[in-house]
Write a structure and sequence with these properties.
Shape: elongated
Structural class: alpha/beta
Order of helices and strands: EHEHEHEHEHEHEHHEHHHHHH
CATH class of the largest domain: Alpha Beta
Number of domains: 2
Number of strands: 8
Length: about 300
């Protein structure tokens, strides 16, 4: 198939490469000339503008947007909608909040455009391993795009999960679960690192991926990180969050569904960014005040 791809960064560039290797024709655009040049080096056809990209595609067009969520996505959608024609399809593949999909779709449909949201998991490994795709949209348009999804995904690695918004909703929950899993691994390995047994944590991570009930790709990555730097001395324990964990917790609050593990994992990330916090100082002051317990100055 012929596909326009907006955003040729780490994710978008690798996705374009995988599609080209799968026999598709990709016309890519990125505002960064360096990103366009890198794509060209990898055999990807590029356009110098959105208009040039749209002109280069046969009708009905398919354009996949792979830019950061928020304003960059809003701008790309707005500008693209002005250039496309009725019957063309937009696939939004960034980490967008599902409610934004639900909000955007009616205006695009009113123009005669088709809109599909795709939650994409796989990160920088997706180029070789494939991307897990959670797809939301009308069944007929999703089926028409099936060759694209099949090329991007590993075997059985994509699913039409429901109407517009559902793809990004499922991806949001996926990322919330990821927060909890990562936190559980981190706590368990910290306990082992503090034991008196001199444990080889990388070896244990590899062992657990051989038949254990906690085996996972995250554990494979942990084994690699611990093999490279057993004490993780080169890394500071400052953990960012990219938004999906917060969205998952907000959804849990809206639905009155208890999600204590995911919530605690997000709070642990907040905590990682604070040294000598006000809360800890107040705790120390209170213990000193009511019991005369020692404080450190």
């Amino acid at each position: 198939m012929d596909v326009g791809l907006i955003g040729l960064g780490r994710m978008g560039g690798n996705m374009a490469t995988r599609l080209v290797r799968g026999g598709h024709r990709i016309v890519g655009f990125d505002p960064s000339s360096a990103a366009r040049q890198a794509a060209q080096t990898g055999g990807i056809e590029t356009a110098a503008s959105l208009r040039e990209l749209v002109t280069a595609l046969p009708i009905p067009r398919v354009v996949w947007i792979m830019v950061p969520a928020g304003e960059p996505t809003e701008i790309a959608l707005r500008d693209l909608a002005e250039l496309l024609a009725p019957g063309d399809t937009i696939v939004e593949g960034g980490n967008t909040h599902y409610k934004d999909d639900v909000r955007r779709a009616p205006a695009l449909v009113a123009r005669g455009l088709r809109y599909v949201d795709a939650g994409v998991s796989g990160g920088i490994w997706g180029l070789t391993e494939g991307y897990c795709l959670m797809v939301g949209g009308e069944r007929d348009v999703v089926q028409r795009l099936a060759p694209i999804f099949t090329t991007l995904a590993p075997p059985d690695g994509w699913l039409h999960v429901g109407p517009v918004g559902s793809g990004h909703y499922v991806k949001m929950i996926h990322n919330g679960i990821e927060y909890g899993l990562m936190q559980a691994y981190a706590e368990g390995f910290e306990l082992m690192s503090e034991s008196d047994y001199g444990l080889d944590l990388a070896a244990i991570a590899r062992l657990w991926n051989r038949g254990s009930v906690v085996r996972s790709w995250l554990l494979e990555l942990a084994a690699g990180a611990l093999s490279h730097d057993p004490k993780l001395a080169a890394i500071k324990g400052w953990v960012e969050d990219s938004g999906e964990g917060r969205w998952t917790i907000a959804d849990a609050v809206e639905k009155a569904v208890a999600a204590p593990v995911i919530t605690a994992s997000l709070y642990a990330r907040f905590r990682s960014r604070r040294e000598n916090s006000f809360a800890d100082r107040l705790l120390a002051a209170l213990r000193n005040a009511f019991g005369g317990h020692a404080v450190r100055r």
